[in-house]
Amino acid sequence: MGFFGPNIKKMKANKDIEGLIEALEHKDLAVRRCAAEALGKIGDARAVEPLIRALKGQSLGGSRARRLGP
Question: Over 70: is that where the pLDDT of 3 sits?
Fold first, then answer.
């Protein structure tokens, strides 16, 4: 994790699925959203359940969750 939070761009580039899944629970809404978008673009099946939990818990902040797909 960096000084300002996890480096989502780096995790996405490295396909760090576990790190991105962990970022779904970050205190910063922007970090959670970026992590969800990155997971959606990567398309790894391991992210499905954590993304569903995040969406059900509405931790992604509303309508932006619709844009998670490729």
Answer: no
